[in-house]
Amino acid sequence: MATSQKLQENFLTCTICTEVFDNPCTLVCYHTFCRKCVVNYTKTKPEAINAKSLLCPFCSKMTKVTSPERPIDEWADDVKPSFVIQGLLDSFGPGCKDTKNCTCCHREGEITPATVWCSVCDDALCDVCARVHSRISSTRHHDTTALTSEAIMPRKRNIKCKEHKDENIKFLCKDCKKVTCHTCCVIYHRKCESVVTLESELPALKSQLLNKKETISKKQLQMEVKVDAVKVNVVSEKDRYARMEHDIKSFANNAREKITLMENKLLDELKEVSEKHIEQLTADLKSGKMSVQMYRQQTELIDQILQSECDMDVYEMYQGCKAGDVDAVGDVDLKKRIAKIMLRQNEAMLSRALDDLQLGEIDVQYDGMVNLEATPVSQDTSNMLDLKAAPVLQDTINVKVAGGENNVCPADLTVLLVNGTDTVVVTDYNNNSVKSFYTRNKQRHHSKLQLGGSPWGITRLKHNQVAVTVPHTRQIVTVEVNPDLVLLSTITTSKQCTEILQAEKQNGQPSKDSL
């Protein structure tokens, strides 16, 4: 009884009325109250009434009612208590039966030890009351259980009718598929053909529940197998993603190392030539200082001669200056001297290289997608997608570009993969030009190379080179695709060439007759 008291105080008490739950209901926030208490509290909150909801006094969360058109007093009737709360009430609440004493004797004011339990009457009986119980015609067929030890027998939970509050639900209308009380059967189901007691249907219902339980158990086992497989897959995928992350970082590190090597090479080269240049300038400075010193000495000598009274000294000095002895200072060797050091930057090429730099591409394949590379082709083509019969338009290119062009006339085209960028190269006959079209950083770009005549045929020489025929000028032009166009060379032929057939590759190399 101490356990029952603790449960009532801590878990089975309504926080509104501070009494043991009376007809409890559990709201969507999992807080449980007496039905009357939560309804009375809701009546004091206009916002809850307007929202047609029961308001939780504890957390203020609202629970929508299923039949808002009914009176507010009946809003909580459809809200069921949680299984845990109801189970505790049935076992330890004030309505539970203590099998220690006889229930019948207790009603007469006597205390007699109970020896049997009647599950139908929900009563504990002593030996005398049990014999009387077995002789009465209405109770002699009830199942009784001997009480071999002190135990708490849960009472049957009687569900009241929503409309007739004083009557228990005991009947089942199979036609309407509704449980009802006796009065409802008389009023609403008297014309129904199959109205039985709920107790008589319990074996069939329990059998169906057992079958349902077996089905759910099988599904549970199947799902557990799937969960285990997914767990293994999660571990393997994490490892695979870790390897992919390592590869991406490795690729990036390699790219940075190459850039660092190029940087160090430029710095070393700059250091070498700059030191040589500074050394030359230092030598020039030293030589210049020596020359200044010699010139100063020579000017002082001339001043002394001019002040001299010896005519012969003046004449000899004059002859020496005329012969050029005065200017005979150290000559500077101008061969292999550094005049200037400059850094010639190719910003455009560097920008294109950085834009075209791709470490890789994340390819995501979703369930239901057909992976033509990974999925083997089945011989049964009845359920296969006919790719040839269902072409899909991917993109269109407008060959005309800004710049006052004539009506464009695309004569020939080829597609190259340059640094991971798909590039379309087109010959424009009317505008004497070759054009390239590509997409970079989700932006469309184009390049145009003007030629001396009208180009016609085009063919791929290398992964980033094409050859273009210009029939009227009898020329074949080679162009580099970066993917912008750069003129490489012009070959003059004896005949007018309109097309160049791409040579077959032998052992991975083009043949000698490519052009």
Q: Tell me about the biggest sheet?
A: 4 strands, antiparallel
Q: Quickly give the structural class.
A: alpha+beta
CATH architecture of the largest domain: 2-Layer Sandwich
Strand order of the largest sheet: 13-14-15-16
H/I helix tally: 10
Write down the overall geometry: elongated
Overall pLDDT, averaged? 81
Percent of residues in helices comes to 25-40%
Q: Give unreliable regions as ranges.
A: 372-389, 503-515
Distance between the termini: 105 Å
Q: Class of the largest domain in CATH?
A: Alpha Beta
* Fourth CATH level, the homologous superfamily of the largest domain: Zinc/RING finger domain, C3HC4 (zinc finger)
Q: Roughly how many Å is the radius of gyration?
A: 52 Å
Number of domains: 3
Strand content: 15-25%
The CATH topology of the largest domain comes to Herpes Virus-1
Number of strands: 22
Describe the structure.
The protein has 515 residues and is α+β, with helices and mostly antiparallel strands. It folds into 3 domains: 2-153, Zinc/RING finger domain, C3HC4 (zinc finger) (Herpes Virus-1, 2-Layer Sandwich), CATH 3.30.40; 209-323; 410-503, Thrombin, subunit H. Helix content is 36%, strand content 19%. The chain contains 10 helices and 22 strands. Strands 13-14-15-16 form a 4-stranded antiparallel beta sheet, with no helix packed on it. It has a 4-stranded antiparallel beta sheet with strand order 17-18-19-20, with no helix packed on it. Strand 18 and strand 19 form a beta hairpin. The N and C termini lie far apart (105 Å).
